[in-house]
Amino acid sequence: MDSQSMKDYIRNFSLDNGPRGHQGYSRGHQGYSRVLLQIFGYLGHGKSSFINSCKYVVDDGPYKPYAKMAGSAEKPETMIRHQYQLTETITLVDNRGCAKMNKNEIGEIYAQLGNFLPLEKKVNWQTGFHDMMELLLQSERLDLSSDFIVPVLVYSADCLVANVNEMKEILIAARDITGLFPTVVLTHEISHHLSQVKESFRTMGVKNMFSLENYTAKDNVKTRGKHETILRCVQEIIKDVEFRMLEERDAIGERIGRKRFLLEFAHRRELEQKQQKEENSVCAIL
User: Fold this and answer.
1) Tell me, what DSSP letter sits at residue 189?
2) Cα separation of 278 and 40, whole Å?
3) pLDDT tens sequence across 79-92
4) Of 20, 21, 44, 207, which alpha carbon lies 20 to 30 A from 99's?
């Protein structure tokens, strides 16, 4: 499929296209109204640049830096969960990136992926079970069950995967939260680490993986290769959504399942923290 055909496919995609439509009112809910591509990952790995690149190739207009790139972890722009409309049906969400992917940060990433945090608001890392419980209670003010969530991990090929097991655990958790195994977008494809990073993600079970070079404010000369790779990535993500929409779905039930996952995760994290404190206290006494 050429660039124009892929672009038309993306622009014309609607949740009403399948045999079950957007599945409204079948189980007492309004059905799905949009697809959220939940972009997540480490700080500085190219999440915002990927969003800008998607907008550039689909809008087919001049390059614009819609999403601000993270210069440092202290920049306010990197702490807010921004949304950018790609088409009438598809919205890109630039979630707050992680610096270390420790337990606190991972919990907040899960909360973002579960769509329990408001858009265009500052994201704070939660530290305990009660913080997570309060977050989920407050999310009742947000009626987001009509969002079809798709996780997309953006990872720089310049960085070797330090701990494959930890990353695999995060990817599996993202699958359990959203119902879809994350698509992985590897930026900086000219990196000499690319083949090694690809192999690491393959061992984690990643099937949908795309390596690309993002367009930037300094380098936005259109090339067929960049355009087609980015369009193909978005197209394949949409095909997964179409496939899943062939099934009978229960948006409200899925949201309850996401809450259960987060509460169980927060509870395990609390127990681990208490155990670690007790072990540290024993070591200090000895």
Assistant:
1) T
2) 33
3) 788 999 999 999 99
4) 207
Residue 127: exposure state from Cβ atoms within 10 A (0-12, 13-18, ≥19): middle
At position 236, the amino acid (one-letter code) is E
Q: Phi, psi (5° rounding) for residue 211?
A: -105, 135
φ, ψ of residue 193 in degrees (nearest 5): -90, -5
Whole-prediction pTM: 0.88
Calpha distance 21→202 (Å, rounded) = 33
Q: Which of 154, 83, 145 is nearest to 115 (CA)?
A: 145
Residues 6+ away with beta carbon under 8 Å from 285: none
Stretch (H or E) spanning 205: none
Residue type, 176: D
What is the rounded average pLDDT of the residues 103-123?
A: 82
Angstrom distance (rounded) from CA 123 to CA 112: 9
Q: Hey, what are 280's tokens? A: 């540290």
